[in-house]
Amino acid sequence: MDKFWKKLSPGANHVERKSIESSVTVPDVPSFQSLIDAADSGSFDMHEFERACGIPNRMLLPKGKKDGMEFSLFLAVTDGSHDLTHPDVESEHGGTHAHCGAHGEVYPDKRPMGFPLDRRIPDRRVFDETTNIKFTHVKVYHDERKFTVVGA
């Protein structure tokens, strides 16, 4: 779903990430009318649409249901200092690096694309017995006024 750098402290950490910050999403393609309006107003700026590789921001999470829709969530935390291939940890390398690679650059980490789900997992115990991996079930609720994910 996403892959990003975040410095964590020992103990509990609160991590919040918006879909527009994701390393796998891109903005929706603008409509023809919005392009015409931008050109007419003189504010024609297409820099955020330079990369077309990725999924639309609005599709990162499923819509869910009013009474909740169950999904499995997998989280892996790794030591980024061992995986680093470049000096700028904060750089997202063009936005959609986790989904599409980094065009013309070294991939931002030493792990294969899709790691750690880039191979067959033979047994649920791999998830349960590995201290830096969490596998749980969550519910995604659809509310016309807000978006909520509830789980572990």
UniProtKB/TrEMBL annotation:
GO MF term set: metal ion binding
Keywords attached to this entry: Copper, Metal-binding
Highest rank taxon of the organism: Eukaryota
Domain Hemocyanin C-terminal: 1-142
Protein name: Hemocyanin-like protein
Top-level taxonomy: Eukaryota, Metazoa, Ecdysozoa, Arthropoda, Crustacea
